[in-house]
Amino acid sequence: MRKEERLAKEIIEQLGGTENIADLASCMTRLRVKPIDYEKVNLNGLKNVDGVMGVVEAETLQIILGPGIVTKVANEVSDLTGQNIRNIDDENNNPFEGLAAKTKAELKEKNATPFKLFLRRIASIFIPLIPAIVASGLIAGITNVIVRSGADPESILIQILNFIGWGLFNYLGVFVGINTAKEFGGSPALGGAAGILIINPGLANITLFGEELVPGRGGLIGVMLAAAFIAFLEKRIRKFVPSAVDIIVTPTLALLITGIVTLIVLQPIGGFISDLITKGLLGLIDMGGIIAGLILAGTFLPLVVTGLHQGLTPVHMELINKIGDDPLLPILAMGGAGQVGAAFAIYFKTKNERLKKVIKGGLPVGILGIGEPLIFGVTLPLGRPFLTACLGAAVGGAFQAFFKIATIAIGVSGIPLAFLVHTDQIILYLLGLLVAYFFGFIFTWIFGFKEEMAKNI
Description:
Gyrase A, domain 2, phosphotransferase system, 64% helix, mainly alpha
């Protein structure tokens, strides 16, 4: 039996059987499942399935499997259950909306704070876009390295690579608008239209209240505001429009009103919020320097544990849109590097063969910027190594902040991020990565791990 087939069958068994699975989705490392009845789920059994690196309990169960394997397992689960793999947050198409209300309420009480709910919604918008963003960013970054190495920027090869790499970022607002509308219960197409209202070059031809409008002002924050507003408006208008003319009247009124409100209110508000975030972060990094880098990198991993770190994607994009690069991403990337260092220390120190096997499976992808397998399979279950990994990350983050390392696009962390930093900073970024590895290793070796901890793995 293939590994992914075995995993799928064992996961389904611990979830309470095929009839207890309401919905499926997958991201880069996690299989996201919405059970019909949470009381039928054997959480301890699920966590102990060989190949499952951890489980995050939220409105959906997020089963950590690792990159590559998660897609194969998701397909197997889909085949066995008959469930399509889709966006589990699309409430309009969710036939299980009213199921397990008691358990869902308990989960919300346990996990929901306003800030966590806000970040979770932002993450739900951007998680489906991550593969395209990573691929486009990496192609753009590699092209930049090639050009800086002496290639002719006007050559047909470079032009084609730039065309492929940067294309997504020119139209990212449309995709964000689509996903935002879905998240807020509206029509995806109208969400895309709301995104176009923000990024349309035709804005440059409009003068409103004596001021020339600027295409893209407000960035993705403005797009999310406009798309959320059109979704809200669409649902309200539909209540009063006769069904016979709904398909014509509702979207027309929603788009018309949203367009006017966006130009007058939402785009300026998005621009204000965008300026506030970027100036605030840049001010923090400039004033705090080493201290800011230390704090930001050292506290990032707990956000990854909850799966809410994707909610920072619009912040990274706004920094790039406003100042041309992103000094925050290299700092936060040190979180995964600290994990790698801690994992190496545990591997060389422990005699537990099962733990060594888990580390061997998680280290390659950890070095390549996917930290969840090491977090959920190694450091977090052990406890103290998670903290020493954070300390190693903090030192690496201080290094990146001190040298003001910044990326020209966003993508996964680890070694691949070297292609996205400014060409003259590649060596410094990699040195910072080694610093985080080293201190994550040293802190964990000295006081982060004892052999008796491995008994629970």
